[in-house]
Amino acid sequence: MVLVRGNVSQEQQQDLFAVFAPAPGVHHAPPADVHQLKEKLVFERSHRARNYRLTLRRDGTAVATIPARGSQREAERFVAEQIEWLDRARARQRRRPRAAEVWTLGTRVLWRGELAAIRAAAVGDSTARAGNSRPQVCVSADVFRVPAFEGDLRPTLEAQFARRAKIELPARTWELAAVTGVDVKNVTVRNQRSRWGSCSATGTISLNWRLVQTPEFVRDYIIYHELMHLREMNHSERFWARVEEVCPGWREAEAWLKRNGSLVGL
Description:
The chain is of the alpha+beta class. 32% of the residues lie in helices and 19% in strands.
């Protein structure tokens, strides 16, 4: 969850999980002492940031980003004005569905945009590989090898999800880059814990492997989002106009991420 404020006025901007900002011009009186939040509040300076930004991590820590020309004092004032927003954001965070920490047979996991139960692949299962002596499990229509049916299957399955992502996501990115005419130099797939994607000014796009767990329209939106950043390295109105042009359904994708991102730990 992210709250962004410009240098002069507060404004709503969209982000990967959408933005829960107060209406423009609305300011809350600061509390007596913003330092009461120090246990769960950290300040980080970013030379790339253009605005003050308040981010709520999934562990409940609030991160206040200070732009290149900003000050610690102004960042503290910004946070102090947004205490009510932060309380609401934390309440929403507590209500969001969470993925199971341990995956066993029967656990429902997010795969290709749907919650599917992990089940043992029967010998006669048409999706199982004939003659394979190792245990196999099915997640929706896909089959994965596992060391055994007992124990936590999450590390094994997530590793295989990531391997598929390293094949599928770059291929789709190059395809959409060709469609949009954006010059991409490199595509990487990473184990990002707080972002679905990112890009660099040198033309490299990095994607979170967990995108293979999302629906196709969400996966494509994140790719389009990063492709348009190679044309506009900001979240200006011009940037969102470019996103709208290539991905008219981006708002639905943002809403899906807002509702379901916590199912993959983001």
